[in-house]
Amino acid sequence: MSTTVIRPKKTFSLTDLREIWQYRELLYFFAWRDLKVRYKQTFVGIAWAIFQPFMAMVVFSVFFGGLARMPSDGVPYPIFVYTGLLFWQFFSSSLADVSNSLITNQSIVTKVYFPRLILPIAVIVTHLVDFFVAAVVLIGLMVYYGFTPHLAGLCIIPLLLLITFFAALGGGLFLASINVKYRDVRYILPYFLQMLLFVTPVIYPSSIAGAYSWILAINPLTGVIKGARATILGTEPVNWFLLGLSSLAVVILLVIGIVLFKQMERYFADII
């Protein structure tokens, strides 16, 4: 009797992409399962995807837009901040859940073979659904304030979503690999995301950073959020240099995340 031994490779190649495509139905299953589990036995169901950024928008509008008089580039502050929150919520929620994706699927990882990259990708796809659901509120805000969006610029939105997707995937793969061995990640990450929010131009325009604008430029979400406001709200011309810088940072982050993930993949089932 012959025995087939399946060993994960240490490097990422086109074979991995073909394998992910072969298991695309499993990817769909994981994404659909996560959606159902998250909103199972909830009173408002998937409306929670709207509730979180909406309540954050209300709080920020009261304290930063109302009391602190934070500038919003001539756009109603609720629309201004909610546009940033949409992409920030997509990134932060995806990053947090991807970092725990191997731990939460421990029973599957240790028993059945499938491309492990499917789990992180499925998590982000789930949050991408949340993004589109939450985007309905932005449309409602524009109608309420009588604000006309720049529809011609919406063609750049898929690019911005792609950059955010890979930023969450790259950072998530890095953290998920470490989290398998060191469970401190689950305690450190919420604090890290809280700090990262304040160095991302979500609640304020990047123009107020002044001499510290280079700190914001390092953050790949800066180019994404500025690009979203430029295309949808027309606050300024699209800064293609900053967007290119964000893309480069995401590529570097993704490469680091995939390399570490592939290096540690063979040990996941043993130490998880």
Q: Can you put this structure into words, describing what you see?
A:
The chain has 272 residues and is mostly helical. The chain has one domain (14-271). Helix content is 71%, strand content 0%. It has 13 helices and no strands. Helix 4 (77-99) packs parallel to helix 8, helix 7 (118-145) packs across helix 8 and helix 11 crosses helix 12. The mean pLDDT is 85.
Could you provide a short overview of the structure?
The chain is mostly helical. It is 71% helix and 0% strand.
Low-confidence parts? none
Overall form:
globular
Number of domains: 1
**How many strands?**
0
Mean of all residue-level pLDDT scores? 85
- Number of helical segments? 13
N/C terminus separation: 31 Å
Structural class estimated from helices and strands:
mainly alpha
The main sheet comes to: none
Write down the secondary-structure element order: HHHHHHHHHHHHH
Which short descriptors sum up this protein?
mainly alpha; globular
Question: Topology of this protein?
Answer:
Elements lengths: L13 H9 L1 H16 L8 H20 L9 H23 L1 H4 L1 H4 L8 H28 L11 H25 L3 H14 L14 H6 L1 H14 L6 H25 L3 H4 L1
